[in-house]
Amino acid sequence: MSAQAGPEAIARIRAVMADPGQTRTRAIDLHANAHDASHFLLIPQAVAVPESAEEVARLLKTSAAHGFPLTLRSGGTSLSGQGVTDGLLVDVRRNFRKIDVLDGGARVRVQPGVTVRALNARLLRFGRKFGPDPASEAACTIGGVVANNSSGMACGIRDNAYRTLESLTVVLPSGTVIDTGADDADSRLRAQEPDIFAGLLELSARVRGNPGSRRIIEHQFAMKNTMGYGLNSLLDFESPAEILAHLIVGSEGTLGFVAEAVFRTVPRLAHATSGLLVFRDLESANSALPALVASGAATVELLDSLSLKVGQALSRVPGVVRELRVENQAALLVEYQSGDAGELAELGATAGRVAGTLGLDAPAEFSTDTQARAELWQLRKGLYAAIAGARPPGTTALLEDVVVPVPGLGRTCVALGKLFVKYGYENSVIFGHAKDGNIHFMLTDRFASTAELERYSGFTEDMVEVVLGEGGSLKAEHGTGRVMAPFVRRQYGDELYDVMRRIKALIDPAGMLNPGVILNTDPHAHLRHIKAAPPAVDAEVDRCVSCGYCEPVCPSKDLTLTPRQRIVTLRAIEAALADGDAALAKALEADYNYEAVDTCAVDGMCQTACPVDINTGNLVKHLRRDASGKLENGAWETAAKHWGAVTQGAGLALTMAAKVPAGVVLPVNKLGRKVLGADRLPLYSAELPAGGKARRRPAPSGEPAAVYFPACVNTMFGPVGTGDPGHSGVQASFEQLCARAGLQLLVPEGIDGACCGTPWSSKGMAAGLAHMHAQTLKLLREASRDGELDIICDASSCTEGLIHTLESEVPAPGQRALRVVDAVEFTAERILPLLGEGWARIDSLALHPTCSSTRMGLNPALERVAGAVAESVQVPDSWGCCGFAGDRGMLHPELTASATHAQAADVAAMAASAHASCNRTCELGMTRATGEDYRHVLELLADAVTAK
Asked: What confidence tier does 723 reach under pLDDT thresholds 50, 70, 90?
């Protein structure tokens, strides 16, 4: 551990940043940021959030000058302990997300905070993709990909970070900035860092002149290998700047900060077919590898029997896995890829023939269907977190990552199985990239007592012998980190270990960059600082393993806390209370309400990314419920009983406010917020519309095609340009479209007092929610003729809310289930085919899918309807939840401002003819963010159709 930094060191850290607030030392900042995806835990003394490479340079220099250890962190998905520190943690996720596509997509310049998924989304239109394809692509960032020399499931070593890197801009510990792609990179390096320049040439000559060293390096880097430094750079390159660039790859933040990197991209093969091949056991699966690789398979992923069993318990499990009766079987997930449909067909035929010769335990089925393939890969990509989430309560999950030459993979799996038995590690799993000889396995234990640590130590020693005995590497793609640092010398020998020590001393002479990672003289380093088993805090989140997959989709990620941070901080409070540390618990609780509860949009987007299906929004709802008092609960229950008056009153208030200058309304409004609290009284803003109209309608004259449940939010918030006859709102527009299609709708009697229940659910108001559920269900049962008619809703979040309302019902025996359909889906499936063609489309449309449309799988229908409105439909590359979240964007406008910052810039660059979404409050949020009028897509469609 590092010594505690004195006040002077932290003061200097603050001083070198543009804003003192960029350096954070509150308890909540330290504990929320302490966790990454690994099984190690250290609590930093300070967290810095730089905004530029220049600020990082100043931090590095200050760290060295004051002996203050510094660790860089971006996505926080690393698994080997390289992203934790008890010194200064530098967050380079928030402010380093620039992407420049070069040469028509053939190359790309990218900053370290960009996720792999975001980068690939930007490259999609060019038919290109990033070479590395790690399973954590949704959350891992380019900074981590470079730091760990990431590879993945298909890229092998051919297209990993090392092989596809063209150049990088690195900030060295001295503060020197070197662009290794510059024409004068070598001369600049020689002038500014003469010792590094000369030292790298010396080490290159030393390695090249030693046949034994050359042989070890060539063997080790002929397979996936992230153990130690990338010594292959000393053989592969002659230019010191090039050597430096490729030494930085895989250096795990111990040699410098990558401010940006330029990569060569690879073709995105447009056609693929995937299938799960099930074998009777692990040995049979491994025996099939040569035939599958020879058949041209792009990826071959191994899943052992326990992996399959865990997969069967997930909510989004592929049918082929769900239907298995798993005993000792193992499976290979195999994919063939091609840029040509005809060639893929040939590969698919070959795959079928080969599969027929493998003695499978179940028939092989390959599919080109996008949804079927996505389900298979979602299972594989989320496997680590899913298995860790299924660990026994009170234990910690520890994931290892090894590689051996492919012919030795079967023997290695058998040997590992024997070690699991020898050391009593039950329920240990084996899965991974079989084509590359790279497997992952997981151990679960408390790793706390002397006996538990001795058991883990003994297992590790034996495992090292097995892997090195097969000529393998102890780390294939997760990085050396802390977990394998004590074994680097054993893998490479004394001579090459000394070369690595010389590299570290040359580039980081103060030794302050991520000390203890990669090189560590403590033989027990892998046994120290292991996370304690987390305390139970809420059944919704107790299975969280801090993988971080949820973070990129969270609207508050750049403002306050992410879902992972909400969970780990709550656990820290509970642990502090259990340990009797009342001061720490109090300090954490003092800031938790705003950071974790008030600024959570409870949008559920985190659940769409979570491999174990956690919705942290539900945790926040529970916390709000527990914190609400009798008075507040009573007020919301009363509101539920008089909802028609409440919504009409809110609409009337907005109508009145719209007629008064904002300068008159705002002072009174802000005073009220100060008295009542910012989380109780919304903040008025000038772009808010006047109120809407009542929802009730007369009964249809003929047979209704469906029950129509207009959302009450449209009563509170009128349409864009209220008073303009051309802007009549989504209810009138949907009714016009139905009339054009010859469809009649039944709006239920008593609709003005009904609601989907979302306002009560999101605020944790249980009594009011129960009343509204009962009232709305009764209304819908009667209107739908006990489920005979579908129920249509015109706001995506309210559609989702109604679905949850239906889930609260316990139907009577034999009673038909009610069915809710969003108006967008109804339009795409029922109305558009009846409307025909012939109306003029606008040139372009900027489309904002909502969190609810995403969660419900509504976006394909939304895009079909948008395509009927505009010739060109664009969804911003940086799309995400707008954070308006009902009234949350009015209670905390800073949430929406933060959530939409990047998206607003994308929308401005589009210069679209019109802007649309499918939920009124999201339209308000995007209107505020962009200054453009967002309308419901059905309004725009009705405008176009009625104008023809």
From this structure: low
**Count of Cβ atoms closer than 10 Å to residue 814 Cβ:** 5
Phi, psi values for residue 408, rounded to 5°? -95, 5
3-state secondary structure of 241: helix
Q: Return d(Cα 269, Cα 227) in angstroms, integer.
A: 31
Q: What pLDDT does residue 612 have?
A: 87
Mean pLDDT over all residues of the chain?
94
Strands across the sheet containing 46-48: 23-24, 46-48, 88-91, 70-73
The DSSP result for 450-496, as a single string, is HHHHHHHHHHHHHHHHHHHHTT-BS-SSS--TTTSGGGHHHHH-HHH
Place of tokens 């509170």: 716
pTM of the model: 0.95
Closest among 763, 756, 757, 731 to 745, alpha carbons compared: 731
pLDDT at 676 over 90: no
Average pLDDT rounded to a whole number, residues 71-93 = 97
| pLDDT of the residue at 3 | 57
Task: Find the farthest-apart pair of alpha carbons in the chain and give their distance in angstroms, rounded.
Answer: 93
Q: How far is CA 51 from the centre of its chain?
A: 22
Q: Which residue has the higher pLDDT, 603 or 321?
A: 603
CA 603 to chain centre: 14
Alpha helices in 16-70 (DSSP H): 27-34, 53-66
Distance of alpha carbon 260 from alpha carbon 257, whole angstroms: 9
Edge-first strand listing for the sheet containing 934-936: 870-874, 842-847, 914-917, 934-936
Sign of torsion, CA 596 600 603 606?
negative
Angle at CA 860, nearest 5°, toward 938 and 692? 25
Query: Which pLDDT does position 1 carry in this prediction?
Result: 43
For 103, 110, 224, 877, the CA distances from 263, given in Å and listed in that order, are: 11, 8, 19, 20
pLDDT cut 70: percent of the chain above it: 99
Token pair in block for residue 195? 């010792």
Residue 722 has pLDDT above 60, yes or no: no
Q: Give the residue from 433, 437, 456, 438 showing the smallest Cα distance to 446.
A: 456
Average pLDDT over residues 690-711: 95
- Inter-residue contact 313 to 404 (CB < 8 Å): no
The predicted-structure confidence for 22-43, as pLDDT tens digits, reads as follows 999 999 999 999 999 999 999 9
Residue 433, H or E segment:
strand 429-433
End-to-end, the C-alpha distance of the chain in Å comes to: 73
Return the structure tokens found at 924.
């308000």
E strands of 563-713, at which residues? Answer: 706-709
Q: Summarize the confidence of residues 559-568 as an average pLDDT.
A: 98
- With H, G, I as helix, E, B as strand and everything else as coil, classify residue 310: helix
Cβ–Cβ under 8 Å, residues 685 and 654: no
Among 565, 523, 486, 480, residue whose Cα is nearest residue 82: 480
Identify the CA nearest to 47 among candidates 61, 64, 28: 28
β-bridge partners, 178: 170
Residue 851 near residue 917, CB atoms below 8 Å: no
Asked if pLDDT for residue 234 goes beyond 60, the answer is: yes
Phi-psi region of 290 (alpha: psi -120 to 50; beta: other; left: phi over 0): alpha
Token readout for 173 is 């510990």
Parallel, antiparallel or unpaired: strands 842-847 and 914-917: parallel
Give per-residue burial for 235-252: e unless 16+ CB within 10 Å, then b.
bbbeebbbbbbbbbbbbb
DSSP 8-state code for residue 745: E
Residue 596 structure tokens: 């974790």
Say what the pLDDT of residue 724 is: 61
664-693: b or e for each residue (b if 16 or more CB lie within 10 Å)?
ebeeebeeebeeeebbebbbbbeebbbbbb
The residue type found at 833 is P
Specify the length of the chain in residues. Answer: 948
